[in-house]
Write a structure and sequence with these properties.
Blueprint (H helix, E strand, L loop, with lengths): L8 E3 L1 H5 L4 H13 L2 E5 L5 H15 L3 H5 L9 E3 L21 E6 L23 H26 L15 E9 L13 E4 L5 E6 L5 E4 L5 E3 L7 E5 L1 H6 L9 E3 L7 E9 L5 E2 L13 E2 H12 L1 H4 L6
Protein backbone atom coordinates (compact mmCIF):
# COMPACT_ATOMS: atom_id res chain seq x y z
CA UNK A 1 0.00 0.00 0.00
CA UNK A 2 1.35 3.41 -0.97
CA UNK A 3 0.62 6.86 0.39
CA UNK A 4 -2.09 8.76 -1.49
CA UNK A 5 -3.60 12.24 -1.46
CA UNK A 6 -6.79 11.70 -3.46
CA UNK A 7 -9.24 8.97 -4.42
CA UNK A 8 -8.77 7.55 -7.96
CA UNK A 9 -11.61 7.33 -10.49
CA UNK A 10 -12.51 4.42 -12.78
CA UNK A 11 -14.57 4.68 -15.97
CA UNK A 12 -16.77 1.57 -16.20
CA UNK A 13 -17.93 2.22 -19.77
CA UNK A 14 -16.09 -0.80 -21.22
CA UNK A 15 -17.55 -3.08 -18.55
CA UNK A 16 -21.10 -1.80 -19.01
CA UNK A 17 -20.95 -1.75 -22.82
CA UNK A 18 -19.29 -5.12 -23.39
CA UNK A 19 -16.00 -3.62 -24.53
CA UNK A 20 -12.39 -4.54 -23.87
CA UNK A 21 -11.84 -4.39 -20.10
CA UNK A 22 -8.12 -5.22 -20.11
CA UNK A 23 -7.00 -1.72 -19.14
CA UNK A 24 -9.92 -1.29 -16.74
CA UNK A 25 -8.87 -4.45 -14.87
CA UNK A 26 -5.34 -3.05 -14.57
CA UNK A 27 -6.73 0.27 -13.31
CA UNK A 28 -8.93 -1.59 -10.82
CA UNK A 29 -5.94 -3.57 -9.52
CA UNK A 30 -3.95 -0.34 -9.08
CA UNK A 31 -6.75 1.57 -7.38
CA UNK A 32 -7.76 -1.17 -4.98
CA UNK A 33 -4.27 -2.51 -4.49
CA UNK A 34 -3.00 0.88 -3.37
CA UNK A 35 -5.96 2.85 -2.02
CA UNK A 36 -8.87 0.44 -1.49
CA UNK A 37 -11.28 3.18 -2.57
CA UNK A 38 -12.31 4.58 -5.93
CA UNK A 39 -14.95 6.64 -7.68
CA UNK A 40 -16.78 4.81 -10.46
CA UNK A 41 -18.36 6.69 -13.35
CA UNK A 42 -20.42 5.52 -16.34
CA UNK A 43 -21.83 2.83 -14.08
CA UNK A 44 -25.20 2.50 -15.80
CA UNK A 45 -27.41 3.37 -12.81
CA UNK A 46 -30.21 5.79 -13.73
CA UNK A 47 -29.59 9.21 -12.10
CA UNK A 48 -33.34 9.47 -11.43
CA UNK A 49 -33.21 6.29 -9.37
CA UNK A 50 -30.44 7.79 -7.29
CA UNK A 51 -32.49 10.96 -6.72
CA UNK A 52 -35.51 8.85 -5.81
CA UNK A 53 -33.64 6.87 -3.14
CA UNK A 54 -32.40 10.06 -1.49
CA UNK A 55 -35.93 11.47 -1.53
CA UNK A 56 -37.21 8.25 0.05
CA UNK A 57 -34.52 8.42 2.73
CA UNK A 58 -35.39 12.00 3.66
CA UNK A 59 -39.07 11.06 3.75
CA UNK A 60 -38.36 8.20 6.12
CA UNK A 61 -36.11 10.14 8.47
CA UNK A 62 -38.68 12.95 8.66
CA UNK A 63 -41.18 10.57 10.29
CA UNK A 64 -41.93 10.93 13.98
CA UNK A 65 -39.61 8.89 16.18
CA UNK A 66 -42.50 6.72 17.35
CA UNK A 67 -43.33 5.78 13.75
CA UNK A 68 -39.73 4.77 13.10
CA UNK A 69 -39.45 2.88 16.38
CA UNK A 70 -42.47 0.83 15.33
CA UNK A 71 -40.12 -0.96 12.93
CA UNK A 72 -37.03 -0.96 15.17
CA UNK A 73 -34.13 -3.18 14.06
CA UNK A 74 -34.97 -6.85 14.54
CA UNK A 75 -32.83 -9.98 14.98
CA UNK A 76 -32.69 -10.35 11.18
CA UNK A 77 -31.06 -6.90 10.96
CA UNK A 78 -33.92 -5.17 9.22
CA UNK A 79 -35.66 -1.94 10.14
CA UNK A 80 -34.84 1.29 11.93
CA UNK A 81 -31.48 1.84 13.64
CA UNK A 82 -31.85 4.81 15.98
CA UNK A 83 -29.05 7.21 16.77
CA UNK A 84 -26.77 6.13 19.66
CA UNK A 85 -27.54 2.41 19.23
CA UNK A 86 -24.53 1.22 17.21
CA UNK A 87 -20.89 1.39 18.25
CA UNK A 88 -17.79 0.16 16.40
CA UNK A 89 -16.49 -1.66 19.44
CA UNK A 90 -14.45 -4.08 17.32
CA UNK A 91 -12.45 -1.24 15.78
CA UNK A 92 -8.71 -1.49 16.26
CA UNK A 93 -8.31 1.86 14.55
CA UNK A 94 -9.40 4.11 17.41
CA UNK A 95 -10.57 3.84 20.99
CA UNK A 96 -14.30 3.96 20.31
CA UNK A 97 -16.40 4.57 23.41
CA UNK A 98 -19.24 6.66 21.97
CA UNK A 99 -21.97 5.40 19.63
CA UNK A 100 -22.11 6.54 16.01
CA UNK A 101 -24.00 9.78 15.46
CA UNK A 102 -26.29 8.50 12.74
CA UNK A 103 -29.69 6.94 12.29
CA UNK A 104 -30.66 4.62 9.46
CA UNK A 105 -33.16 2.32 7.79
CA UNK A 106 -31.89 -1.13 6.80
CA UNK A 107 -33.30 -3.61 4.28
CA UNK A 108 -31.87 -6.87 2.97
CA UNK A 109 -32.69 -9.42 0.28
CA UNK A 110 -36.19 -10.82 0.59
CA UNK A 111 -37.22 -13.54 -1.83
CA UNK A 112 -38.21 -17.17 -2.12
CA UNK A 113 -34.92 -18.19 -0.52
CA UNK A 114 -35.90 -16.61 2.82
CA UNK A 115 -35.88 -19.36 5.46
CA UNK A 116 -36.27 -19.18 9.21
CA UNK A 117 -33.31 -21.55 9.70
CA UNK A 118 -30.88 -19.40 7.67
CA UNK A 119 -29.05 -16.64 9.53
CA UNK A 120 -30.34 -13.14 8.66
CA UNK A 121 -33.04 -14.57 6.41
CA UNK A 122 -36.51 -13.13 6.85
CA UNK A 123 -38.96 -10.41 5.85
CA UNK A 124 -38.12 -6.75 5.70
CA UNK A 125 -39.89 -4.22 7.89
CA UNK A 126 -41.48 -1.40 5.91
CA UNK A 127 -42.71 1.99 7.10
CA UNK A 128 -46.18 3.17 6.11
CA UNK A 129 -44.93 5.44 3.33
CA UNK A 130 -46.42 5.39 -0.13
CA UNK A 131 -43.94 4.27 -2.77
CA UNK A 132 -41.09 3.80 -0.28
CA UNK A 133 -40.77 0.04 -0.66
CA UNK A 134 -40.95 0.23 -4.45
CA UNK A 135 -38.11 2.75 -4.65
CA UNK A 136 -35.90 0.74 -2.27
CA UNK A 137 -36.47 -2.48 -4.19
CA UNK A 138 -35.80 -0.84 -7.57
CA UNK A 139 -32.57 0.70 -6.29
CA UNK A 140 -31.50 -2.60 -4.75
CA UNK A 141 -32.10 -4.45 -8.01
CA UNK A 142 -29.97 -1.97 -9.95
CA UNK A 143 -27.16 -2.03 -7.42
CA UNK A 144 -27.17 -5.83 -7.21
CA UNK A 145 -26.61 -6.01 -10.96
CA UNK A 146 -23.77 -3.50 -10.72
CA UNK A 147 -22.27 -5.37 -7.77
CA UNK A 148 -22.10 -8.61 -9.75
CA UNK A 149 -20.30 -6.88 -12.62
CA UNK A 150 -17.81 -5.30 -10.21
CA UNK A 151 -17.09 -8.64 -8.54
CA UNK A 152 -16.26 -10.15 -11.92
CA UNK A 153 -13.99 -7.20 -12.64
CA UNK A 154 -12.30 -7.60 -9.25
CA UNK A 155 -11.50 -11.25 -10.00
CA UNK A 156 -10.09 -10.30 -13.41
CA UNK A 157 -7.98 -7.64 -11.71
CA UNK A 158 -6.29 -10.15 -9.42
CA UNK A 159 -5.82 -12.77 -12.11
CA UNK A 160 -8.41 -15.30 -10.89
CA UNK A 161 -9.39 -17.35 -13.94
CA UNK A 162 -11.57 -19.88 -12.13
CA UNK A 163 -14.50 -17.70 -11.12
CA UNK A 164 -16.72 -20.29 -9.48
CA UNK A 165 -16.85 -18.07 -6.39
CA UNK A 166 -19.30 -15.87 -8.30
CA UNK A 167 -21.96 -18.53 -7.66
CA UNK A 168 -21.89 -17.36 -4.04
CA UNK A 169 -23.32 -14.08 -5.33
CA UNK A 170 -26.25 -15.68 -7.20
CA UNK A 171 -28.22 -15.34 -3.94
CA UNK A 172 -26.08 -12.68 -2.31
CA UNK A 173 -26.20 -11.10 1.11
CA UNK A 174 -27.18 -7.51 0.36
CA UNK A 175 -27.73 -4.56 2.63
CA UNK A 176 -29.31 -1.25 1.66
CA UNK A 177 -28.83 1.36 4.36
CA UNK A 178 -30.44 4.81 4.29
CA UNK A 179 -28.26 6.89 6.59
CA UNK A 180 -28.95 10.25 8.21
CA UNK A 181 -26.20 12.15 10.03
CA UNK A 182 -27.37 15.17 12.04
CA UNK A 183 -24.87 18.04 12.32
CA UNK A 184 -22.30 17.44 15.03
CA UNK A 185 -22.10 20.14 17.70
CA UNK A 186 -19.37 22.75 17.08
CA UNK A 187 -17.68 21.85 20.38
CA UNK A 188 -18.05 18.08 19.95
CA UNK A 189 -15.27 15.95 21.49
CA UNK A 190 -12.65 14.58 19.12
CA UNK A 191 -13.82 11.00 19.67
CA UNK A 192 -17.42 11.70 18.64
CA UNK A 193 -17.97 10.48 15.09
CA UNK A 194 -20.79 10.27 12.61
CA UNK A 195 -19.21 6.92 11.84
CA UNK A 196 -16.12 5.92 13.83
CA UNK A 197 -12.95 4.80 12.03
CA UNK A 198 -13.59 1.31 10.68
CA UNK A 199 -13.13 -1.10 7.79
CA UNK A 200 -16.16 -2.59 6.06
CA UNK A 201 -16.51 -6.29 6.79
CA UNK A 202 -18.02 -7.52 3.51
CA UNK A 203 -16.88 -7.60 -0.11
CA UNK A 204 -17.95 -4.40 -1.88
CA UNK A 205 -19.55 -1.18 -0.66
CA UNK A 206 -21.18 1.08 -3.26
CA UNK A 207 -21.86 4.48 -1.73
CA UNK A 208 -24.01 7.38 -2.92
CA UNK A 209 -23.44 10.64 -1.03
CA UNK A 210 -25.38 13.89 -0.97
CA UNK A 211 -23.53 17.18 -1.43
CA UNK A 212 -22.59 17.67 2.24
CA UNK A 213 -19.39 15.61 2.42
CA UNK A 214 -17.71 14.28 5.54
CA UNK A 215 -16.33 10.92 4.37
CA UNK A 216 -12.59 10.53 4.92
CA UNK A 217 -10.21 7.69 4.00
CA UNK A 218 -7.07 6.88 5.98
CA UNK A 219 -3.68 6.66 4.28
CA UNK A 220 -0.88 4.27 5.34
CA UNK A 221 0.79 7.16 7.17
CA UNK A 222 -2.36 7.75 9.21
CA UNK A 223 -3.48 10.90 7.38
CA UNK A 224 -7.14 11.43 6.51
CA UNK A 225 -8.02 12.22 2.89
CA UNK A 226 -11.41 13.69 2.02
CA UNK A 227 -13.63 11.73 -0.38
CA UNK A 228 -15.86 14.56 -1.59
CA UNK A 229 -19.23 13.86 -3.23
CA UNK A 230 -19.52 13.49 -7.00
CA UNK A 231 -23.00 13.59 -8.46
CA UNK A 232 -22.01 11.38 -11.40
CA UNK A 233 -20.19 8.76 -9.35
CA UNK A 234 -20.46 6.16 -6.67
CA UNK A 235 -17.62 5.65 -4.22
CA UNK A 236 -16.76 1.95 -4.14
CA UNK A 237 -14.51 0.35 -1.54
CA UNK A 238 -13.30 -3.15 -0.75
CA UNK A 239 -14.22 -4.84 2.54
CA UNK A 240 -12.49 -7.44 4.68
CA UNK A 241 -14.02 -10.48 2.93
CA UNK A 242 -12.82 -9.46 -0.55
CA UNK A 243 -9.45 -8.61 1.01
CA UNK A 244 -9.30 -12.21 2.24
CA UNK A 245 -10.55 -13.67 -1.06
CA UNK A 246 -7.87 -11.73 -2.93
CA UNK A 247 -5.23 -12.99 -0.47
CA UNK A 248 -4.47 -9.40 0.48
CA UNK A 249 -4.10 -8.06 -3.06
CA UNK A 250 -7.15 -5.80 -2.72
CA UNK A 251 -7.19 -3.55 0.32
CA UNK A 252 -9.83 -2.97 2.96
CA UNK A 253 -9.07 0.61 3.97
CA UNK A 254 -10.07 2.45 7.16
CA UNK A 255 -12.53 5.30 6.77
CA UNK A 256 -14.76 7.50 8.91
CA UNK A 257 -17.48 10.15 8.73
CA UNK A 258 -17.35 13.46 10.58
CA UNK A 259 -20.19 15.88 9.84
CA UNK A 260 -18.93 19.34 10.77
CA UNK A 261 -20.93 21.03 8.00
CA UNK A 262 -23.74 22.20 10.32
CA UNK A 263 -26.10 20.62 7.77
CA UNK A 264 -28.04 17.37 7.70
CA UNK A 265 -26.06 14.69 5.83
CA UNK A 266 -27.62 11.77 3.94
CA UNK A 267 -25.81 8.85 2.36
CA UNK A 268 -26.88 5.53 0.85
CA UNK A 269 -24.39 2.68 1.16
CA UNK A 270 -25.20 -0.59 -0.60
CA UNK A 271 -23.22 -3.60 0.62
CA UNK A 272 -22.76 -6.52 -1.79
CA UNK A 273 -21.61 -9.73 -0.13
CA UNK A 274 -21.69 -13.49 -0.73
CA UNK A 275 -24.36 -15.80 0.60
CA UNK A 276 -24.11 -16.32 4.37
CA UNK A 277 -23.19 -19.99 3.84
CA UNK A 278 -20.03 -19.09 1.92
CA UNK A 279 -16.63 -20.24 3.15
CA UNK A 280 -14.39 -17.24 2.58
CA UNK A 281 -10.77 -18.10 1.78
CA UNK A 282 -7.99 -16.92 -0.54
CA UNK A 283 -8.95 -17.87 -4.08
CA UNK A 284 -6.89 -20.23 -6.26
CA UNK A 285 -4.37 -18.29 -8.27
CA UNK A 286 -3.71 -15.64 -5.62
CA UNK A 287 -0.64 -17.30 -4.14
CA UNK A 288 0.14 -19.06 -0.88
CA UNK A 289 -2.86 -18.44 1.42
CA UNK A 290 -2.28 -15.74 4.04
CA UNK A 291 -5.69 -16.19 5.69
CA UNK A 292 -7.53 -19.14 7.20
CA UNK A 293 -10.97 -20.03 5.81
CA UNK A 294 -13.99 -18.72 7.68
CA UNK A 295 -17.75 -19.12 7.43
CA UNK A 296 -19.27 -15.79 6.44
CA UNK A 297 -22.43 -16.31 8.49
CA UNK A 298 -20.47 -17.11 11.64
CA UNK A 299 -18.35 -14.02 11.07
CA UNK A 300 -21.47 -11.87 10.73
CA UNK A 301 -22.92 -13.17 13.99
CA UNK A 302 -19.87 -11.97 15.88
CA UNK A 303 -19.72 -8.58 14.13
CA UNK A 304 -23.40 -7.72 14.50
CA UNK A 305 -23.60 -9.08 18.03
CA UNK A 306 -20.77 -6.82 19.14
CA UNK A 307 -21.81 -3.65 17.33
CA UNK A 308 -25.60 -3.30 17.58
CA UNK A 309 -27.75 -2.95 20.67
CA UNK A 310 -30.55 -4.87 18.96
CA UNK A 311 -28.34 -7.98 18.75
CA UNK A 312 -26.74 -7.86 22.20
CA UNK A 313 -29.39 -10.05 23.82
CA UNK A 314 -30.01 -12.26 20.81
CA UNK A 315 -28.71 -15.74 21.57
CA UNK A 316 -28.17 -16.36 17.86
CA UNK A 317 -25.42 -13.72 17.76
CA UNK A 318 -23.40 -14.93 20.75
Amino acid sequence: MTEFTEIPALDLAPLMNGGDTTQLAIDFANAYGNTGFGYIINHGVDPKLRKDIFAASKQFHALAEAQKQAIALDKNHRGYIAINTSTDVNSDLAEVTKPNQSASFMMMREDEFARSDVYLSGPNQWPDLQGFREVCEAYTEAMTGLGRKLMGLALDAIGVTEQGILKAFDTPTIWLRLLHYPPQPPQAPEDLYGSAPHKDFGCLTLLAQDDVGGLQVQTPAGEWVDAPPREDAFIVNVGDMLHRMSNGKLLSTPHRVINTSRRERYSVPFFFDPNVSTIVAPLPGTGTPKFDPLNFGDFLRAELGASYDAHHDDESTR
